[in-house]
Design brief:
Helices cover 79% and strands 0% of the residues. It has 442 residues and is mainly alpha-helical.
């Protein structure tokens, strides 16, 4: 039977209660969840508004998740030198600035300006995630760290659901209903009218980001006046060896950590592909409108939320790597259904994948950082850089959807493109199995 001190999620082994800072930092998980999932439907929106290809519109995700790749390591070095609270404040500041850049981007009607706004915004998110994840792990006993992070991450999809709802009701449903073909024809017959429609649509896209920027600015003020604990490393030898170079050397030699980063790349890739292209799948396979298709995205997120709380409970009884392997296998099976089953059943399979993804990010994160102490600040950066999987894979899937002629008439390019998520689940399952094998050897 576990010690009582190790069963409380919010108490350290010295008895310190971290409930208040835990609640405060956990609120940030919903905040970046909102940003992620108000953005995913914008891939389809920009495609129609600006008359660009699936590949080009997927550059939204390239810019959004590229910010994580670019800023994660500098963010980790920053908090290594300063502290968690300062890292959070820098993250919130960049996040707010990125949101406010949507206003000049909309006025300029320039796609590159929107991409820049997304990039700045996610440089802020990289600071927040690089800071918040290891901070949550440290707010209590190490024995409960993975459960604690899963609990915090359970609030991330609540923000995601809110972002999806805003995208559905306040963006997609309010955009001009003219189809791509109608806009092309209008551009040839009356360019001024098409420009007016674009201006209106881009203003609709930009307004929620303006409101989000103001909310983030409010969070900045709250954190600025709040007192957060200074987490230190009790092992003085480890503290003495905490130079950036020494930590990098230890991380590179750590096979578990390197494989966890790789698994995280593929997890984030599959998550963003599944949630980004539900809309295209529903449109191309079933002829749904973007707003109706976004409703299925919201169902997927609702399932994800429920599954996250269920899986957090199950972690009390099952090893994290065992659940990771099982759910990755289930995700692969549902992806096969998405590829090979036509119509609404295939869409249901695509929605069901979200039940299998809920556990993955925080569990891989917790496995990777277990026992790292002060090294976790820099190690977390590699796991945030791994979010770059969401930067590279969606444009590749968008390219596959565009290239329908590659597959002939017998194969639908939208369904075939989900071979990429299938590969991702295979890699994640292999990682979960390998972690279990290493535990058995020890």
């Amino acid at each position: 039977m576990e010690d009582k001190k190790n069963t409380s999620l919010f108490k350290g082994n010295d008895g310190t209660n971290y409930l208040f800072p835990f609640i405060l930092v956990t609120s940030l998980f919903a905040l970046w969840g909102f940003a992620n999932d108000i953005t995913n439907p914008m891939v389809a929106a920009f495609k129609n508004i600006l008359l660009i290809s699936n590949f080009e519109s997927s550059l939204v995700q390239f810019a959004f998740y590229g910010g994580y790749c670019f800023m994660a390591i500098p963010a980790a070095m920053f908090i290594q030198k300063f502290n968690y609270k300062t890292g959070i404040l820098v993250g919130l500041g960049l996040y707010a600035v990125g949101c406010l850049l949507f206003i000049p981007a909309g006025n300029a009607m320039a796609f590159w300006a929107f991409l820049l706004a997304y990039f700045v915004m996610t440089c802020g998110l990289a600071f927040l995630e690089t800071t918040s994840n290891p901070f949550i792990l440290s707010l209590g006993a190490e024995e409960t760290a993975t459960r604690r992070l899963n609990f915090s991450q359970a609030f991330n999809p609540i923000g995601s659901l809110t972002g999806m709802l805003i995208a559905k009701e306040f963006i997609l449903a309010r955009l001009n209903p003219a189809t791509e073909a109608e806009r092309i024809a209008l551009g040839q017959s009356n360019p001024e009218a098409l420009t007016a429609i674009r201006q209106s649509d881009l203003a609709i896209v930009s307004f929620p980001y303006l409101m989000l920027g103001l909310v983030v600015a409010l969070f900045f003020i709250v954190f600025a006046v709040s007192k957060l604990p200074q987490i230190t490393v009790s092992n003085t030898v480890a503290a003495a060896q905490s130079s950036t170079g020494a930590i990098f050397k230890r991380l590179i030699k750590n096979k578990l950590y390197i494989r966890a980063v790789l698994a995280q790349v593929f997890y984030v890739g599959v998550q963003i592909m599944v949630w980004t292209f539900i809309i295209q799948y529903a449109q191309n396979e079933l002829g749904m409108s973007k707003a109706d298709a976004q409703g299925y995205n919201m169902w997927a997120m609702g399932i994800f939320v429920a599954s996250r709380f269920i899986c957090t409970f199950l972690l009390k009884y099952f090893k994290p790597n065992t659940l990771l392997f099982t759910l990755a296998t289930g995700g692969g099976i549902f992806t096969l259904g998405t590829i090979f089953i036509h119509g609404i059943t295939g869409l249901y399979c695509l929605v069901a994948i979200s039940a299998c993804m809920s556990l993955m990010f925080p569990t891989i994160y917790g496995i990777a950082l277990r026992g790292m102490g002060n090294d976790a600040k820099l190690a977390s950066a590699g796991l945030i850089v791994a979010i770059g999987g969401g930067c590279l894979m969606p444009p590749l899937q968008g390219l596959l959807i565009d290239k329908a002629h590659w597959f002939g008439e017998a194969l639908d390019s939208t369904r075939v493109s989900f071979a990429l998520p299938l590969i991702c689940f295979i890699v994640i399952a292999a990682f979960g199995r390998w972690v279990g094998q290493q535990a058995e050897i020890k």
